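Batch job 17 of 40 flagged for manual review because the log was empty.
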Amino acid sequence: MDQLLAYIPLLLRGALVTVSLAVLALILATCLGALAAAGRITGGRIARAIVTTYTTLVRGVPDLVLILLIYFGGQRAINDLGAMLGWEYVALSKYWSGVLSIGFLYGAYLAETFRGAYRTIPRGQIEGAYALGMRPVPTLLRVSLPQFIRFALPGYANVWQVLVKSTAVVSVIGLEDLVGLANDAGKSVREPFIFFSFVLVMYLVITYVSTTFFEAMERRYALKGRHP
């Protein structure tokens, strides 16, 4: 236990890297998911075909494979292109490769979450708002958006919980996140069980805090749904 205490500051720094990576990946996934959902709902035939291909292919790829493909494959592709154009060697960031791969992966899941939430909004309410003389923007902000958030929150929270746990695989490309630092520290003092037990506890804490936050958000929007 004394060995673990000596590494606590280092592991907490790794936990901060993990959380920040997860948050940035969620932001990217949210943007991609929103664009993909919009393309699926309001886009033409080509847009729907592109979105369908994206969501179908990406959801069938393991996160580990995608991370390795983007980091190592992307590193090779960029430098092969750079050699043709006379560029100097470019080193891809492990951190941003993790953000890109996880965000790209879970954007496909959020696309279906957002599409389902939008389809759940009763069409009659939007038509009623227009009949009362409301403009499109006020209708979106006061009628559609609160209900959209209410219906999307459970699926969104579930994607976030899974996304957070997926950050653990980023350590395979050498990122000094919580798992990577715990693995190195555990090997150095020959106490992997203690260090990975600490990792388990940290992920449980992140999960608990996240669950508490999303449950509060769901209660808030559920009340708005009953008392507009």
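Reviewer: the log was empty due to a logging misconfiguration, but the result itself is present. The helical segments are 2-42, 45-58, 63-85, 94-120, 123-131, 136-166, 178-189, 192-226. Unflagging and moving on to job 18.
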